[in-house]
Amino acid sequence: MKRLLEKVTSVLRSEQRPESTHHHRAGHKVFVHIDESLTADRRLQKYQKPLHQALMLAHLGHVASGGSVQGTDGTIHWISLELQLRDLDGALHFACGKLRELGASARSTVKYQHAGSTVVRPIR
Q1: Whole-angstrom Cα distance, residue 61 to residue 94?
Q2: Which of 83, 93, 103, 120 is the most buried (most CB within 10 A)?
Q3: Which domain holds residue 100?
Q4: 35 in helix, strand or coil?
């Protein structure tokens, strides 16, 4: 929980930086739900870093944060990533393809806002 709070604080601080540092920001926030039980370090190595690097190299966006959902017994039930993407067409398609390549299961989903509605769909 402490790491999650530190990450949220970090994200909030980055949103308050001067305009010159906003070149990493993209237009669409996308929440990724990955049905996998991974520790924070393993999530970072398996999904966050490679996806972030791929998105940045392609100039399509970046991974803004990641998290884990734990049960009351401390076991991790699933993990999440928050992406900032340039668009909901090519960049989202690219990100979903990369997630599949990295091993995300067919039960994984993306969630985003489109035309005033919340869309939840499999990463396909």
Answers
A1: 10
A2: 83
A3: 24-122
A4: coil
The CATH number of whichever domain residue 57 belongs to comes to: 3.30.70
Amino acid at 121: R
> In the Cβ-directed half-sphere of 65, how many Cα atoms lie within 13 Å?
17
Q: What is the pTM for the complete model shown?
A: 0.77
Angle (CA) 121-50-97 rounded to 5° is 35
Q: Kindly state whether residue 91 falls inside one of the protein's structural domains.
A: yes
Asked whether 102 and 52 are in contact (CB, 8 A), the reply is no
Instruction: For residue 11, tell me if it sits in a domain.
Output: no
**29 token code pair:** 């926030």
Q: pLDDT by residue (tens digit) across 105-116? A: 989 999 999 999
Residue 9 token pair: 């604080």
Name the residue among 48, 51, 45, 35 with its Cα closest to residue 91.
Answer: 51
